[in-house]
Structure formats: structure tokens, C-alpha cells
Amino acid sequence: MKVLVPTDGSDRSMKAVEMAVKMAEKESAEVTLLSIAHYATGDFEALPADLQIRFELAAKSVLEKAKALFDQKQLKVETRLEYGIIPGNNILKLAEEGGFDQIIIGSTGVTGLTRLIMGSTALKVAQHAPCTVTIVR
Ligand SMILES: Nc1ncnc2c1ncn2[C@@H]1O[C@H](COP(=O)(O)OP(=O)(O)OP(=O)(O)O)[C@@H](O)[C@H]1O
Ligand SMILES: [Mg+2]
After folding, report:
1. Which pLDDT tens digit goes with each residue over 73-124?
2. pTM for the whole structure
3. Helices H, strands E: what count in the chain?
4. Measuring from each residue's beta carbon to the nearest atom of ligand 1, which residues come in under 6 Å?
């Protein structure tokens, strides 16, 4: 069982990570944690020079935080850092290419309004994933 867990560090996505920890523990699921760093395009002159590095560092620290939950229990886990503007696209592409059986994702994340039932990433993944999707709230 190959499980993909996209995380942006939000509470809901960390609940998804916790669910995957249990699956690794109990069912020996092979878990991959994925974080997509925002890719800063557009008018580069107007953007702070280190913006891309900051996005990358933020995504890396999210991966570290999630990986720590597996490390604590000495469970094996893969981490993957990607760059993109629409994270849902990265998630769908990797789910397809990596032959994942299941995606576990938060219903909302860090960028949206809390009143939303579901964020655009979760919605996109639920609509187009080639495998089972579990949405955590
Ligand atoms: N950059 C990202 N990298 C990895 N996973 C992500 C990323 N952004 C969102 N996710 C995943 O998608 C889940 C839902 O987040 P989503 O982006 O859909 O909601 P939102 O941020 O509240 O709203 P929106 O982004 O549509 O304004 C998160 O809990 C996380 O699991
Ligand atoms: Mg978002």
C-alpha cells in the first residue's frame, strides 16, 4: 500500500500525517510526504531576492515537522519537495507517476479562509485523483 500525504503544515494536514503514521505502524504502508514550495514567478524585479529561498525553506521545515512523527516511532518515510503554483497539479502528477494507492489530504490548509468547507487543493485532488482519496478534517 503506497500512501501519498501532501502537507502544507496546516493543522488538518498534520492530522492527515498522523493518520499515515498509524497506517505505517499497523499496515506497513509505504508513506511519502510531499510539500510543494510556491514557485515565485512574475515581476522578479519587484520581489525580494530571497523570496524563492524563503518559500523553499518553509516547505522543507514542513517536511521536517511531518517526518519527525515517523522518526519518533522509527518508522520509514520518504519526503519529497516540489515547486509549483497550483499544488493540486503537483499532487495529481506524483500520484499518477508514483503509482500511489491512496492520498490522505487535509480538507483545508494554510492559505484559505477557514469558513470554506474545502480548499481548492483538496477539491482538485478529490475530483481528479487516479486513486482513493481520504480527506481529513
Ligand atoms: N503547498 C502544498 N504542499 C503540500 N500539500 C498542500 C499544499 N497546499 C495544500 N496542501 C494540502 O491540501 C490540503 C488542503 O489545502 P487547500 O490548499 O485545499 O486549502 P486552503 O489552503 O485552506 O485553501 P486555498 O489554498 O484553496 O485558498 C492541506 O491540508 C494539505 O494537505
Ligand atoms: Mg492552500
Report:
1. 999 999 999 999 999 999 999 999 999 999 999 999 998 776 778 999 999 9
2. 0.95
3. 4, 5
4. 6-8, 10, 12-13, 16, 34-36, 87, 105-106, 108-112, 119-122
- Cα(3)–Cα(6) distance, rounded to whole angstroms? 10
Classify domain 2-136 at the CATH topology level: Rossmann fold (3.40.50)
Give the chain's length. Answer: 137
What gap in Å lies between CA 15 and CA 22, rounded to an integer?
11
Residues contacting residue 45 through CB under 8 Å, at least 6 positions apart? none
Q: Which three three-digit cell numbers place residue 84?
A: 509549483
Contacts of 47 (CB under 8 A, 6+ apart): 40
Kindly report, residue by residue over 23-36, the tens digit of the pLDDT.
999 999 999 999 99
Q: What is the dihedral of CA 92, 93, 98, 102, to 10 degrees?
A: 0
Nearest ligand for residue 106 CA: 1
Query: For the chain, how big is the Rg over CA atoms in Å?
Result: 15
